[in-house]
Sequence to fold (123 residues):
Amino acid sequence: MEERQTGQKEEEKFWRQVRGVEYNLLEVEPKEREFLAFFKSSLDEGIRGISVIEKFGKSETLAMYANTLEEWDEMIGGTWQQDGKKHLVPEVDTESVQEEVERKVGRGFHQIGQLQGQFSCVL
Fold:
C-alpha cells in the first residue's frame, strides 16, 4: 500500500492505493469457467435436441411426400443410400468445437483482464 498526502490546508487527508483494487471493483460475470460450462451444456442440449428430430423420409405422416421425392431423386441423381435410422444423428466433433471455444473465450477473458488493468490509474 502506498499513502499520499492531499494538498488540503484545513485538515490532512490521506488516501491509500491498493494494488489490484480494479479487479475487485470491476468483477466480470459470469466467470470464464461458468461461461464455458454453460456453453458445453448448451451444445450438448442442442445436439440432443437435433437427435430427436424424425427424418423426413421416416415419418409416417410424410410418407407420401417422401416416396415422391425418392422417385425424383432416383431420376435426377441416382440411388441414394439411407442409413436406416429413424432420427437425425448429428456428426459433430464436440471435443474440437469445445477446444476452439475454450481458446477463443480464454483469449477474450485475457483481454478483459488487460482492460481492467487500465483502470488502476483511476481507482
Remarks:
- Residues 54-87 form one domain.
- The chain is about 50% helix and 5% strand.
- The CA atoms of residues 33 and 85 lie 37 Å apart.
- The chain has a mean pLDDT of 77.
